[in-house]
Amino acid sequence: MKHISGFILLIVALLVGGVIIPVGFIYGLIKSFWHSHIGNGLEYENRREKSVAIRLDEFVNAACPELFEDCLMKVNGKYHFGISGQTLSLVIGLNQIENNLTKTGIIVCRLLNLFERDHCLKYAVQYLNQIKQ
């Protein structure tokens, strides 16, 4: 049983999260607008949603590394998916610098660039500068 306890915990967390997250998100949205001015509510929600998006990105990266490495990377390179605390954008950017993205990886990177110019590259350069220090 101890060998599958992590898997069981993951399934339970996904089921509970699938119910609680939408309810909690809607509740928080209503509450933040109810107790503040519209501008303040929008600013707070934007910060919170960005934080949640980053954590979800990290979770997806940690949960599906084999899928992303097979679909987005040309070869088994220097930078790998699945490292805790790293986002997909970061790892895609690191592999972009190494010229190690498949056509699918390049497409994903370009899609992210629609929302923010040089999105993946920006996080990769920031990360590389941090580890140099």
Structural commentary:
By secondary structure, the chain is mostly helical. The chain has a domain at 60-132. 76% of the residues lie in helices and 0% in strands. It contains six helices and no strands. The model has no long low-confidence stretch (mean pLDDT 86).
Strand content: under 5%
Question: What is the 3D shape?
Answer: globular
Mean pLDDT across all amino acids: 86
Give the terminus-to-terminus CA distance.
Answer: 44 Å
Major sheet size, sense and barrel closure: none
Poorly predicted runs are none
Helices and strands, in N-to-C order? Answer: HHHHHH
Number of strand elements:
0
How large, in whole angstroms, is the Cα Rg? 18 Å
Number of helices: 6
Helix-strand makeup class:
mainly alpha
Please estimate the helix content: over 70%
Short summary of the structure?
This protein has helices at 5-34, 38-63, 65-72, 88-97, 103-115, 119-132. It has 133 residues and is an all-alpha fold.
